[in-house]
Amino acid sequence: MQKIKSLMTRQGLKSPQESMADLSPVENFRIPSKEELRELREQPIDPQAEQEIIDSIEEVYFSNDAFDMVQHELEKLPPELNLQELEEYRDKLKRQQAAVSKKVADLILEKQPAYVKELERVTALQTNLQLAAVICTNARRQLGVAKEGFTGASLGLLANQRRRHLLTGLLKSLRTIKTLQRTDVRLSEMLEEEDYPGAIQLCLECQKAASTFKHYSCISELNSKLQDTLEQIEEQLDVALSKTCKHFDVAHYTKVQLAYTLLGKTQTAMDQLHMHFTQAIHNTVFQVVLGYVELCAGNADTKFQKMQYKDLCTHITLDSYIPCLTDLCKALWEVMLSYHRTMQWHEEHDNMETSPAADSLSDSVVDRSYVKKKLEHGLTRIWQDVQLKVKAYILGTDMSNFKYDDFIVVLDVISRLMQVGEEFCGSKSEVLQESIKWQSVNYFKHYHRARLEELRMFLENETWELCPVKSNFNIAQLHEFKFMGQCRSPSVSPSRQAASSTGLAQEELSLFQLYLLEGNPFEMHIEHKEEETEDVLASNGYESDELEKCVYQDYDNDSDSDVPEELKQDYVDEQTGDAPLKSVSRETIRSKKKSDYNLNKANAPILTNTTLNVIRLVGKYMQMMNILKPIAFDVIHCVSQLFDYYLYAVYTFFGRNDMYESSSLGLISSRLRTTLNRIQESLIEVEAAGENAGVHGAVEERKEKVPSPHLSQLVVLTNSGTLYGLAQRVVATESLVFLAEQFESLQSHLDTMMPAAKKPFLQQFYSQTVSTASELRKPIYWIVAARAIDYEQMLLLMAGVKWDIREIMSQHNVYVDVLLKEFEQFNKRLADVSRHVRIPLPVSNVLWEHCIRLANRTLVEGYANVKKCSNEGRALMQLDFQQFLMKLEKLTDLRPIPDKEFVETYIKAYYLTENDMEQFIKNHREYSMKQLANLVNVCLGSHINKKARQKLLAAIDDIDRPKR
């Protein structure tokens, strides 16, 4: 059976039937004939039955080729042979053989196409092998020819040529190696020349070449040396980078950046740069402060070098404080300017590289983006470092004992530094503001306290003499107010204004643009001193000899030569203090001469040395407020205290009098009284006696208060010859009014400085305090008016007059002439006083008004003392009063005459009927109870009976009862 299997795998062109014929005799003996096979094929056999027949074949028939089937079958035969059994067994074997043969024939027929195809491939392979044999034969023949055609010498020539080529390459390599060995010298030269990009380029090329020849043993050592050199270059590059922090040089920085770009370390360079800037700030400030500390210490002790910067700042002396601060700011400016120029360089560099090649875009964009963010972030960091360093310096010294001008310089420098910060990174410099605010408040408390004490001393030594100033005097002429003439924003430092005042084009430039290439904004304050001197004082109080002569000219001269041009052009309205809209006629000017004493000095402000001192103080306070807005409210509060104290002093010296209440003239308004009470409670220190003097918690409050001032003993207010110190009273009062006017002119400027939340305080100060200054004229000049005329003598003279006459008189009484003489004497005294001090029109009007009011009230009082009076007597009263008015109108141009109706109404009330009298009593509360009662009693018997009298007196008593 194994043989049959092997036949199935053989190749040949014979049919399966012919192949069977080639089998061995033994095998052929067992295979059926063609006829039998055909019969077998023709006999339909059930495939399942056929498979069962095949399965019934013994396993041994499927063994290897060495199996002998005949021998096997013979050995199976029994000892005793039975023909029938043998035939049956033979038939069985035939059936098995027939089944196998059929199965094999079927398989052969099934595989026939594959067999034919494979046979064709074998044929093609045989053809190819024959072709290959022909090619090999030809090649061998040609090789034989070549061997015979070339000699050994020719081959040797070729070998030498190849060797020469190899040696040429070797020579080139050796020359390169020699060049590499000599690069160290060139690299050192390049580093000395600060050609960092060239050195790095050369080093990188050497490294690349060295890696090409790394198979040479001598190159491996050179490679490591080049790596060390590259690291050394990086270190020197780092040092070069640090140099740009103080003095930025475009060419130098360009080289450094190019070198870092070659190294591929642009981002690392930026990190290092910020570290260097931080270090530069620290080293700079430390060295500046250390230099001043050691200079002032004056010894060689180096203990200061080991101190912390914060501790070092506490050793700065007062004399060296400002120079050190200035140098500190100059040095920090250099660092910030270098950073600003660094950013500028990168912006310009980025703009130049806006269109790089597409393939190199990604890395460069990432680098530029990183650098931009790092630089922008670094702005705030660097400014914060600067602030902290300057803050430590500011807080290291107690400035409370500084001179004012020195402290202003400090504020100016810090203000300029804050402006630098705003332009540098848009910062509001909260750290600097807080520190300088703390120092300013501390300084200002001490300064203001000292100034209040100084003001008290001035007031107590003030003799209230006129301070001679020019007629065109204005506070803008004082050094302290020069800053206002610059018309600049309060937040801009003086240096900025000085720099920008050179032209409109420069005003828009920032400090970094102005000082980009040279100069330093912190060098300005030395040149900021005013060179010109003040010229506000007039010699001897007059501006020229001509004016001095004019002082003594006669007022009744009708010529206009003695009237200054200023007065012809303008005069001050007596009621409002404002200038009229229209020009004034000559007649008007002449008519005003009698009241406005000493017209030739009409335009010269009335002020004292103390007033000038207060104005200068206000200017200094405003300067400080202008530079440092955070303490604006504290400063304005102190400014208000200066005015409060001056007003209170003038009132205390000249206006305090217990007779006000009894005068019923309303001399002190409720607003003025409230103001005076407020000042006394908040500012004036009341000397406490006994145990209450040491109450806990009152110490701080007392620090804010000042003792009440005392009038100088040199000022005499009781002499009738000087009209009870009228000159001093005029100087004191009008200097206060002048001061109030200056405060009014400053209101808009102060308002811009005041924080919005505190503006009501300023408005209240102006509406309730400053505006009340002119109201002090009434109580102060009333004291003069009350003593200047002898009203008691007039009452005595009136008491001697007989009023119950029966005929109408044509001649007035003597007391009227005496009173008018008193007024003439008063007018003469006013003229005498005006030769020393100009008496302004509002002052003369107040004085005349007071005198006339007091005279009229004295007349009413005299008429009220009359026991008996007839109708003719009342007519005489009217005649006297009309005579008084007629003569008085010639003495004064005050119109209308004050309290004229007060007298006339009282005289005419004599003629009233009972009902009208009752209504009169209810309507006219201005008369005293005594005056009203006397009116009723005098009328008794004439046209009022006793019953009516009782009724009217009861009405008067009802009016008086609520007052009790």
Secondary structure elements and pairings:
Elements: H1 2-9, H2 16-21, H3 25-30, H4 34-42, H5 47-55, H6 69-76, H7 83-110, H8 112-149, H9 152-181, H10 183-192, H11 196-212, H12 217-243, H13 250-263, H14 266-297, H15 309-313, H16 318-352, H17 361-395, H18 404-425, H19 430-461, H20 494-500, H21 504-507, H22 511-514, H23 524-527, H24 545-551, H25 565-569, H26 586-592, H27 609-627, H28 632-655, H29 660-663, H30 670-682, E1 684-685, H31 698-703, E2 706-707, H32 726-753, H33 759-768, H34 777-788, H35 791-799, H36 814-834, H37 841-864, H38 871-891, H39 900-908, H40 914-923, H41 929-939, H42 946-960
Parallel strand pairs: 1-2
Protein name: VPS50 EARP/GARPII complex subunit
GO cellular component, one term: cytosol
Biased composition (Polar residues): 8-18
Task: Give a verbal description of the structure.
- The chain is mainly alpha-helical and 964 residues long.
- Among the domains are: 47-193, no CATH class; 265-351 and 364-424, no CATH class; 453-483 and 604-685 and 709-778, no CATH class; 789-905, no CATH class; 912-963, no CATH class.
- The protein contains 42 helices and 2 strands.
- A two-stranded parallel ribbon has the order 1-2.
- The termini are far apart.
- The model is unreliable at 7-30, 355-360, 487-507, 525-532, 541-595 and 688-697 (pLDDT under 50).
- Residues 54-345 form the Vacuolar protein sorting-associated protein 54 N-terminal domain.
- It comes from Takifugu rubripes.
- One of its GO terms (molecular function) is SNARE binding.
- Keywords: Coiled coil, Protein transport, Transport.
